[in-house]
Amino acid sequence: MIVETGILEQTIRNLTEHLLSRRCSAGHWRGHLSSSALSTATALFALALIDKTRYRSFTERGLDWLAANQNADGGWGDTVISGSNISTTMLCWAAFTVVEDQTSYRQTLVRVEKWLVNRAGSLRSAELAEAVTHKYGEDRTFSVPILTMCALAGRLGNKDTSWKLIKALAFEFAACPRWVLRFFRLSVVSYAFPALIAIGQVHYYHRKPRCPLKRLARHFTRRRTLKLLDEIQPSSGGFLEAAPLTSFVVMSLAAAGRMNRDVVSRGVEFLTNSVRDDGSWPIDTNLATWVTTLSVSALSRSDDFGVFLSRDDRVNIQRWLLGQQYRREHPYTAAAAGGWAWTDLPGGVPDADDTAGALIALSNLGLSGDDVTAAAEAGIKWLLGLQNKDGGIPTFCRGWMKLAFDQSAPDLTAHAVAAFDAWYERVNPKLQTRIDRAIKRALVYLSNEQREDGSWTPLWFGNESAPGQANPVYGTSRVLIGLSRLPDRKKGPIGRCVNDAVRWLISVQNPDGGWGGAKTVGSSIEETALAVDALAGVLQGEPVSNCSGREAYTDCGDIREAVMQGAAWLIDRTEQGRTWTAAPIGLYFAKLWYYEEIYPVIFALSALSAVHRLIKKGFPVNLRID
User: Fold this and answer.
1) Rounded Cα–Cα distance for residues 353 and 414 (Å)
2) Within this chain, do residues 335 and 434 fall inside the same structural domain, yes or no?
3) Sign, CA torsion 609/611/612/614
4) Which residues neighbour 339 within 8 Å (Cβ) at sequence distance 6 or greater?
5) So what's the pLDDT on residue 188?
6) Is 70 exceeded by the pLDDT of residue 128?
7) In what helix (H) or strand (E) does residue 22 lie, and over which residues does it extend?
8) What are phi and psi of 407, to 5 degrees?
């Protein structure tokens, strides 16, 4: 059937009303992250190690939640709608050891052990350890914590057997002065300090190294590294505001005879404060800064932005955003001042995506002031200082581009480029010159990183059903959205890359009109909305009278048809903006899946608002729902 413009407008109104209703009392957004089986398993286990009697209600409710949310195949995924994986399933299996009488969980344990035998070959310690280690390869930042909890739970056999299967972490490196780490470009190590220190110490406690030098180094750095752990713990008690990381620290120190340290008690307080009413824990407390900047950008697509958010509303959001900017070197990561983190809580650390998002949101709020410009310039300088040798932008720090923390990513790079352009005309000439150089390098990076089929892959987002669990639809859409902000005079040779990306994005559209993470993957609201938003942005930059006349882009009739089919799918799937289901496309540290309940609302609103702008610009309406 033909969908009238009025239905599109009604859908936008419904989405807008819901998004505005999700603001907290302070005027910004906090969102709501999915509950996590992995977080729940590690948190309840850590609390049980501290005091099984005192925290019995936490462990019992957590185990009940895990039992109720076990997958049909017997394993657990990272979210309640994720497929089973070895790491989460092993941790959940270990968590059930905290209760002596396991009668009520007998069927749960029978099913999980059957799953583990099918996946690992048997329940023998060596085979289970090999299955976990194989998943993460050379990266020990998560395989070692998983195996450590399993060892503490007795799931890897006796003490002599279990600790031999776990590679020791060299926690003595945490005692090195920060300047040494920076000199050798090892600043990335700081993000792993809590796990490095705590898990390294529990391994040392249970199994001393044979090498005399290692043994001496670890013996003499125990107190110093524990003191460092105290110093870098945020006031909330939660390292990175993450239940798993905090839980690993708490359980490791408790099992290493360090239960009475303040860092443990503060970690326990964080865990008890962050549990949900149903007994589960999320992967992180919230993404308040991220969802606020995304919400502002989505609402700003409308000509009624000033109606949706009054001047007072926008002043409050701006004040809140400015308050989240780090004004001094970060005490945990030693990151320079000027960046933003994903959350407003003390456990966050500055990163590229949130800094770029905050800069764009501050621009979209449309409120001038010397303090805003100064904050923007500081944020831009922070991003410029992050740019890697290859011209790309990493998440947290410059480095060797071998680990997730310091790897350049196409979506982050394009987001930074968009942030640079948003403030270009308002910053000082010297900074403009630096921005020009940075954009040129970034465009070269994006050109080099584009895959042969025309797509780009992101770093912190994926799709469990896509090849390699990558999400080229997300990555390609984000790059196109970022590049659409650039004036043509700055795009240079990237125009051909845009053309290839557009053609690829159209080629992977599903027959139902939506998009999944890759070709033939089931459509989701988030991925469809991002693709529609990206393609609409390409059309928005084209003159209506001669849309297909420019060589840089593919035929605009094809783009327009793809956009309208995608918009129709969004209207239909959300029941005109009244219902929505989030998809687990987010990737946390160590590739842990999550979804954010507010993502589909934000992304759909942004995409459909972009389509509405096209219609007002003069593009013909042809929305169909089969």
Assistant:
1) 10
2) yes
3) positive
4) 325, 326, 350, 351, 352, 354, 355, 379, 382, 383
5) 44
6) yes
7) none
8) -75, 135
**Which one, of 27, 32, 605, 29, lies nearest residue 309 by Cα?**
27
Assigned token pair, 7: 């239905």
User: What's the Cα-to-Cα distance from 600 to each of 406, 525, 570, 574, 583, rounded to whole Å?
Assistant: 29, 6, 10, 9, 8
Say if residue 25 is in the same domain as residue 40: no
- Give the whole-number percent of the chain exceeding pLDDT 90: 77
Burial class (CB in 10 A: 0-12, 13-18, 19+), 596: buried
Structure tokens that stand for 488 in this block: 């043509």
CB-CB contact of 272 with 58 (8 Å): yes
Could you tell me which residues are beta bridge partners of residue 594? Answer: 586
Find the angle CA(544)-CA(546)-CA(549) to the nearest 5 degrees: 140
Tell me, yes or no, whether 183 and 328 share the same domain: no
On the CB side of 272, CA atoms within 13 Å amount to 14
Contact in structure between 383 and 427 (CB atoms under 8 Å): no
Contact 532, 610 (CB under 8 A): yes
Which residue, among 426, 314, 413, 296, has the nearest Cα to 361 in the 3D structure?
296
DSSP 83: P
Distance CA 63, CA 52 (A): 13
How far is 490 from 486, CA to CA, in rounded Å?
6
3-state secondary structure string across 376-442:
HHHHHHHHHHHCCCCCCCCCCCCCCCCCCCCCCCHHHHHHHHHHHHHHHHHCCHHHHHHHHHHHHHH
Alpha carbon distance 365, 404 (integer Å): 32
Residue 300 CB partners (closer than 8 Å, separation 6+): 364, 365
On whether the CB atoms of residues 596 and 586 are closer than 8 A, the answer is yes
The domain boundary residue, chosen from 282, 298, 316:
282
Which residues share a beta bridge with 596? 33
Q: What are the residues facing 3 on neighbouring strands?
A: 623
pLDDT, position 620: 62
pLDDT of residue 187: 46
Containing structural domain, residue 117: 35-282
Domain count of the fold of the chain: 2
461 forms beta bridges with: 586
DSSP conformation letters of 535-602: HHHHHHTS-GGGTT--TTS--HHHHHHHHHHHHHHHHHHTTTTT-------EEEGGGEEE-BTTHHHH
State yes or no: pLDDT of 541 exceeds 90: no
Give the model's pLDDT for residue 180: 60
| Section 285-308 average pLDDT | 95
Same domain for 407 and 465? yes
134-154 pLDDT, tens digit each: 988 777 778 999 999 999 999
CATH number at residue 230: 1.50.10.20
Q: For residues 221 and 379, what is the distance between their CA atoms, to the nearest angstrom? A: 36
**In the structure, what pLDDT confidence band is assigned to residue 515 with cuts at 50, 70 and 90?**
very high
Q: Is the pLDDT of residue 461 over 50?
A: yes
Beta bridge partners of 590: none
- Taking the C-alpha atoms of residue 56 and residue 381, their distance in angstroms, rounded to an integer, is 49
At 226, the amino acid letter reads: L
Burial of 107 (0-12, 13-18, 19+ CB in 10 A): exposed
